[in-house]
Amino acid sequence: MPFAHPQSSTELPQDEKARKRELKKEAALNLWRLKKSLEEEGFYAARVALNIWRSSAMDAGTFDQTEYDELKKQMYEKSVNNSLECFEFYLEKASFHDANMCLQTWKVHAQEIGIFDQTKYEELQDKINKARAEKTLKEKKKPSEEKN
């Protein structure tokens, strides 16, 4: 007759304990990767890392919604700042389509975290329009100057 070992209902079998430990370790590693991604990589890489960490933390039972919200906010804030830099860079290069794409990214990501400013958006749109008009005016003047 085999021996029976009573187990309390809170005690997990050894293999289940090892699995939980591995899940927690994986979640911690994914959190580290996320933080590194937030520092060194762009928005989409950070977004993927955020989703991977969330999934692994949920599996491990260590998911913290407050921490998730804070990391997501950091990711969007970085994107908002990078989008403004991108906007200025392309505006300076007179690449108005690219500047507008950066502006639209700024708008969408600022809206996502509740910091969108309609007045600032309109001012930035006006900057593009004025720079485009100035470039067109310069291009129209060039042929007439070449004739003289």
Characterise the protein shown here.
The termini are far apart. With 148 residues, the protein is an all-alpha fold. The protein is 81% helix and 0% strand. Helix 1 (14-40) packs antiparallel against helix 2, helix 3 (65-92) runs antiparallel to helix 4 (96-112) and helix 4 (96-112) packs antiparallel against helix 5. 18% of the residues are buried. The chain folds into two domains: 14-63, no CATH class; 72-142.
- Biggest sheet overview: none
Uncertain runs: none
Number of strands: 0
Query: What is the distance, rounded to the nearest whole angstrom, between the alpha carbons of the first and last residues?
Result: 112 Å
- Estimate what percentage of residues fall within beta strands: under 5%
Determine the fraction of residues in helical runs and give it as a percent range: over 70%
How many separate domains?
Answer: 2
What does the overall shape look like? elongated
Separate helix tally? 5
Radius of gyration: 26 Å
Give the ordered list of helices and strands. HHHHH
> On the 0-100 scale, what is the average pLDDT?
90
Structural class: mainly alpha
